């Protein structure tokens, strides 16, 4: 979730000059079906749809870290509970044990039936991304500093081990056959993890076609990876078995998430410039940008509800960036003078539901 301040500054400058961040194509099958302005104070990072439990999880921060929970069908709030320790970024759920996990420090664990915290798990590093791996029923908590991955047994809430991924991880996907694939943001590659051995077995280089990759999606049937990258702004399509680059397609600015829908054979990348790029897989060797949909500036993370085939994006409105400090003065840091972006507009936080 890095580089948000710089990204927001560029997006606001572009919006001021053109009236929009990047005008999405009006043609195409997808549209914003609903925008729920749920409000609330504090920053946000990832969004996670528990399709089986019909819950939508969003961690919020400042003035106090907390997990907010919404009804996935109505988008009405149903629960909120505090998070001990530092800010939480994301959430994931083990559907069998009915345990949820938040990527905070310590990691928070809760009962998805009662929505009550039941444990905290001490971890090192700075937790950011998170993913549940179904074959081993373990949760991977990612950090941009060592240890890059902490692996937790979902049923017991105990640490199974850590993994050196060789760089800063972002999004990850499982093939449910013994492999986990992880974007390595600062190395322009995808790490392949043996989930039984808890070891990296390969790194797939993106060959300069994509860098600072923050989104990763997976077509399990055809074993194809979709790496959504910020620099260059491309979706790099890879063979999951050997890392061969199959295609490179343009996306918007500031991606921080990607998903694949096997029901429609489409990959989605959400961008902070307020666009959602939709890539159609016509065959295992043919890919095309189907649509660039205008969403909302700052809407850079997303999740998929496979029951409805709907995409959910979270975003908020921000004021103009503060003026730069006078010559010789030290910046006041993130959110202050020279911090790179304005303040979030009160109660502007929104959930966008996207579908056909």
Largest sheet: 4 strands, antiparallel
Distance between the amino and carboxyl termini:
29 Å
Rg, alpha carbons = 19 Å
The total beta strand count reads 28
Question: Helical stretch count?
Answer: 1
What structural class do you assign from the helix and strand content?
mainly beta
In oligomeric terms, what are we looking at?
single chain
Global outline? globular
Question: What is the beta-strand fraction?
Answer: over 45%
Mean pLDDT: 90
Low-confidence stretches: 1-25, 333-339
Portion of residues within helices: under 10%
Order of secondary-structure elements = HEEEEEEEEEEEEEEEEEEEEEEEEEEEE
Model description:
Helix content is 4%, strand content 49%. By secondary structure, the protein is mainly beta. It has two domains: 1-37 and 209-356, no CATH class; 66-205, YVTN repeat-like/Quinoprotein amine dehydrogenase (Methylamine Dehydrogenase, Chain H), CATH 2.130.10.10. The strands form seven sheets. The chain has a four-stranded antiparallel β-sheet with strand order 1-28-27-26, with no helix packed on it. Strands 2-3-4-5 form a four-stranded antiparallel β-sheet, with no helix packed on it. The longest helix is centred in the N-terminal third of the chain and has 15 residues, at 4-18. Mean pLDDT is 90; it is low at 1-25 and 333-339.
């Amino acid at each position: 979730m890095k580089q948000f301040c710089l990204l927001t500054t560029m997006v606001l400058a572009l919006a001021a000059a053109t009236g929009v961040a990047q005008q999405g194509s009006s043609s195409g099958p997808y549209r914003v079906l609903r925008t729920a302005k749920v409000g609330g104070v504090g920053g946000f990072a990832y969004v996670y749809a528990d399709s089986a439990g019909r819950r939508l999880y969003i961690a919020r921060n400042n003035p106090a870290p907390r997990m907010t929970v919404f009804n996935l069908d109505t988008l009405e709030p149903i629960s909120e509970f505090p998070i001990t320790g530092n800010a939480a970024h994301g959430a994931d759920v083990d559907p069998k044990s009915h345990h949820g996990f938040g990527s905070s420090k310590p990691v928070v664990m809760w009962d998805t039936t009662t929505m009550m915290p039941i444990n905290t798990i001490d971890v090192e590093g700075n937790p950011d991304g998170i993913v549940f791996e179904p074959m081993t029923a373990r949760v991977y908590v990612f950090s941009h500093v060592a240890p890059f991955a902490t692996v937790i047994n979902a049923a017991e809430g105990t640490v199974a081990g850590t993994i050196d991924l060789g760089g800063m991880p972002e999004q990850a996907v499982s093939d449910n056959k013994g492999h986990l694939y992880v974007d390595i943001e600062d190395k322009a590659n995808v790490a392949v993890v043996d989930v039984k051995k808890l070891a990296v077995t390969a790194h797939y280089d993106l060959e300069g076609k994509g860098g600072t990759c923050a989104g990763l999606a997976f077509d399990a049937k055809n074993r194809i990876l979709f790496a959504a990258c910020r620099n260059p702004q491309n979706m790099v399509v890879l063979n999951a078995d050997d890392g061969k680059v199959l295609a490179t397609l343009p996306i918007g600015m500031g991606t921080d998430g990607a998903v694949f829908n096997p029901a429609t054979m489409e990959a989605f990348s959400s961008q902070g410039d307020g666009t959602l790029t939709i890539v159609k897989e016509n065959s295992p060797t043919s890919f095309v940008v189907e649509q660039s949909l205008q969403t909302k500036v700052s809407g850079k993370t997303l999740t998929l509800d496979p029951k409805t085939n709907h995409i959910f994006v979270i975003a908020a409105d921000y004021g103009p960036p503060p003026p730069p400090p006078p010559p010789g003065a030290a910046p006041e840091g993130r959110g202050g003078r020279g911090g790179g972006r304005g303040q979030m507009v009160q109660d502007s936080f929104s959930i966008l539901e996207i579908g056909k």
